[in-house]
Amino acid sequence: MTLGLYAGSFDPITKGHLDIVQRAASIAGKLVLAVFDTPSKGLLFSTNERLQLCQSAVAGMKNVEVAKFSGLLVEFARSINANFMIRGLRNITDLDYEVAMLMMNRKLNPRVDTIFLYTSQEYQSISSSLIKEVASFGGDITDLVTKDVAQALKSKLSAQAQ
Ligand code: COA
């Protein structure tokens, strides 16, 4: 069975990420959605919160599993025997950064390649930062995230405001 690995910070996971998850899950036998376990400095949600939000977002997808990882992504890929890694592209601007990561990852572990998948048009201009900013000013982000993420953003941002 081919094992795909889709990693990111997911702070928080958006419908843009989920669009990539669905596309990746349709080409991989099994997909691991891996949350980067990085010190929460600069991130809104803790690793466990990001993990839980990812788990609830993919709850209906049978061949998708959620995990967390720390350290080098290629080492995690090796530890789970991933056949390939997935990265989502939203626009041509993403490409420079993504190719730099691909080349570095390939140098570190030539046996695990990266596949790029292009996101749907409606999610081309969103990012987790933009969603957090809009939510912090009370803007409507309900089309762009799951209900659980919208609720978590509301609670987190109102707790921060106190
Ligand atoms: N839809 C919506 N937004 C998307 C998206 C999509 N399809 N694809 C990417 N994004 C956004 C994310 O929301 C995020 O936005 P933000 O910066 O505003 O938060 C941004 O694009 C990048 O996010 P993501 O794809 O999660 O990447 P990342 O930079 O947060 O994570 C890791 C990258 C974790 C995979 C990478 O840092 C890594 O591998 N780290 C481990 C250490 C390592 O191996 N380093 C060497 C790498 S060569």
**Portion in beta strands:** 15-25%
Write down how many β-strands occur, each being a DSSP E stretch of 2 or more residues: 5
Bound molecules: coenzyme A
Main sheet summary: 5 strands, parallel
Element pattern in H and E: EHEHEHEHEHH
Radius of gyration: 16 Å
Characterize the overall form: globular
- State the helical fraction: 40-55%
* Low-pLDDT regions: none
What is the tally of helical segments? Answer: 6
Could you say what the CATH architecture is? 3-Layer(aba) Sandwich
Query: What top-tier CATH class fits best?
Result: Alpha Beta
Chain-averaged pLDDT: 96
Q: What's the number of structural domains? A: 1
Helix/strand class: alpha/beta
Through-space gap between termini:
49 Å
CATH homologous superfamily (4th level) name? HUPs
CATH topology, anyone?
Rossmann fold
Sequence of strands across the biggest β-sheet:
3-2-1-4-5
Summarize the helices and strands and which ones pair or pack.
Blueprint: E1 3-8, H1 15-27, E2 30-36, H2 47-57, E3 64-69, H3 73-79, E4 84-89, H4 92-108, E5 113-118, H5 128-136, H6 147-161
Parallel strand pairs: 1-2, 1-4, 2-3, 4-5
Bound molecules: coenzyme A.
Residues 7-11, 14, 16-17, 20, 36, 72-73, 88, 90, 101, 104-105, 119, 123, 126-129 line the site of coenzyme A.
